[in-house]
Amino acid sequence: MYLEHIQNYGLLPDLKLSEPRVSGESIDLAVKLIKSFADEDSIAGWDHTKHLPIKRATVFVFLPGLLEIQNVHKALRFPRGKPDSAKFNLDDLDECKRFNYNVIPLHSDLCMDDQMNIFSSPISTYGKNLF
Questions:
Q1: How many CA atoms are closer than 13 Å to the CA of 53, on its beta-carbon side?
Q2: Among 56, 71, 54, 57, CA closest to 105
Q3: Does the pLDDT value for residue 36 go beyond 70?
Q4: Which Gene3D superfamilies does this one have (predicted)?
Q5: Which of 51, 61, 92, 113 has the most other CB atoms within 10 Å of its CB?
């Protein structure tokens, strides 16, 4: 995907080298782009029983730290904000579960065994997202 394609998903976040950070606008754009790959995947074929594409892309998102990894993952799971778990079943509202996004965080502070999942073969109809 090229810059002119990314602009179709909204305004590009204002980036300043003097203020390195991942803004809320950047996180929103990252979530839109990840979801757009699922739309592209549907061209390859469709599993009508699961209502999902058969073959899904693996998306590698480079982020500067563990907090940013967690924030993007949370925004992908709950794009309208995390609801109150006392009032709602979070699994029902979790878009990673609903749309079969397999998110694998990669960071030196995380357990090596969990990070080794990047080498596993993707499950059919699941999108693999490495943060």
A1: 18
A2: 71
A3: yes
A4: P-loop containing nucleotide triphosphate hydrolases
A5: 61
Among all chains, which residue has been given the structure tokens 């203020």? 19
Tokens 């990673």 correspond to: 96
Confidence label for 121 from pLDDT (cuts 50, 70 and 90): confident
Handedness of CA 24, 114, 96, 128 (dihedral sign): positive
- CA 31 – CA 68 distance, rounded (Å): 13
For residue 114, the surrounding DSSP H or E stretch is: helix 112-115
Supply the range of the domain harboring residue 73. 3-130
Mean pLDDT of 62-71: 90
Identify the helix (H) or strand (E) that includes residue 34.
Answer: helix 24-41
Rounded to whole angstroms, the Cα distance separating 63 from 47 reads: 32
**Total residues belonging to the chain:** 131
**Number of domains the chain contains:** 1
